[in-house]
Specification:
The protein is mainly α and 179 residues long. The longest helix has 21 residues.
């Protein structure tokens, strides 16, 4: 009887993930509802039973548990998204953080494409600039980070073809110069 009572109790994480309000606010905008986005420490990330014990844990940039309804983003990328305006943080880190945050947010959104990596990734890259701006970037900075976001997107769809939506229309980078 004790075993069945324990088995019936909800499983709680032993991790103390950070849940930055701005990250969750931006994710909630794309998810169109309040959502839980977790930013683990590196120790929590590598100890995570979903990715930390996988044969190739470095490949994961984030994931969404659609049963328990939360997202977890790699520590470096969470930090990058949170510091989108901080030029001391490498541009690739800030841009990839934005892309992954928007990507995981679309997995949390209740729409018919949420289970498709290709549809979710297409939405993520198409709404990259808006994500960067919601995190505090000016339109000019969002445009300056876009090539890094496009490079991260390209890497993802080349290495993992199930992330490629052949019909996806990629955003165009605007040359940052005045006539």
């Amino acid at each position: 009887m004790i075993v069945s009572l324990v088995a019936a109790l909800p499983v709680h994480s032993a991790f103390a993930y950070d849940r930055p309000p701005l990250i969750e606010q931006v994710a909630s905008t794309f998810a169109q509802r309040a959502v839980d986005v977790r930013c683990p420490t590196m120790q929590e990330w590598v100890s995570d039973p979903i990715w930390g014990t996988a044969s190739n844990p470095p490949r994961a940039w984030g994931y969404t548990d659609m049963v328990r309804d939360y997202s977890v983003i790699h520590p470096l990328l969470c930090a990058g998204a949170a510091a989108v305006t901080d030029t001391a943080v490498p541009a690739w880190q800030r841009a990839t953080g934005v892309l992954v945050l928007v990507h995981e947010s679309y997995h949390l959104r209740h729409w018919n494409g949420r289970y498709s990596e290709a549809k979710v990734e297409c939405q993520a890259i198409r709404h990259f600039r808006k994500g960067a701006e919601l995190l505090g970037a000016s339109p000019e900075l969002a445009n300056d980070l876009l090539p890094y976001g496009l490079a991260a997107h390209d890497r993802m769809v080349r290495l993992y073809p199930n992330y490629r939506d052949q019909a996806c229309k990629l955003p165009l980078w605007a040359l940052p110069m005045q006539p």
